[in-house]
Automatic annotation (TrEMBL):
Reaction(s) this enzyme catalyzes, per UniProt: guanosine(26) in tRNA + 2 S-adenosyl-L-methionine = N(2)-dimethylguanosine(26) in tRNA + 2 S-adenosyl-L-homocysteine + 2 H(+)
Family according to the record: Belongs to the class I-like SAM-binding methyltransferase superfamily. Trm1 family.
Name of the featured protein: tRNA (guanine(26)-N(2))-dimethyltransferase
Organism superkingdom: Eukaryota
Source organism: Tuber magnatum
Lineage: Eukaryota, Fungi, Dikarya, Ascomycota, Pezizomycotina
Amino acid sequence: MKATIPPKFTILDALSATGLRALRYALEIPFVTRTTSNDLDPSASQSMHRNIQYNKTHTAKTIDPALTPYAAMSKIHVETANATHHMYSVLSPPKPRTEEEYANGESREHRFGKYDVIDLDPFGTAVPFLDAAVQAVSDGGLLCITCTDAGVWASTGYSEKCFSLYGGMPVKGEWSHEACLRLILYATATAAARVRVMEDTIARKA
C-alpha cells in the first residue's frame, strides 16, 4: 500500500523586508508546505533569519494546535535575490543547487517550481514585477498585489506616468478610487494576457 503524499502548497513573499508576512503565512495557514521569503537586501535577509529563530521558540501558539511554532518556522526558506529574477528562475525545470551555490551557504534543496500564491508588496508600484509574477504563479494560483504609489494613480498630478505604468489615465472625483483599482487590474490583465488569463477575486482601496 503506497503512502499518501500530501499536496504541496507554496507561497512566495517576493519583497519580504523583515519577513513578518511570511511568518504569518507559515503560522496561520496549516496546509502550507513551503513559504519563500525573498528580499534583495542582505540585511533584510539577516532580519528574516533572526525573526524565524525567535518565533521558533517564543511564539505562543499556531492556528493549528497540532503544528508547533518550530515546525511552522521550518517551512520558511529565505532567499536573497532580485524578485523578478527569482520569479523567472522558477519557470525552468526544478534543479539542485550547484556546488558553488552550496559552498556560498545556499541550501542544497531542489527548487520547487511555480508558486501557488505570490504576494507582491513593493515600495511604490508593482508593475515592474507583473510579467514575472503572472508566469511564476501556478495554474489556478493566487496573485496578491499591493501598489502604494497612490500619488500616481489616484490624482491627476502625474497623468503621463500613470499612463506609462498602468496604461490608462487617472480621474478626479468621488469615483477616483474605483478607477485606480481598475487601472491596476487592467495592468495585471495586460501582463497576464501575453501568456494566460486572469480573474480578479478581491480588489480594495485602503
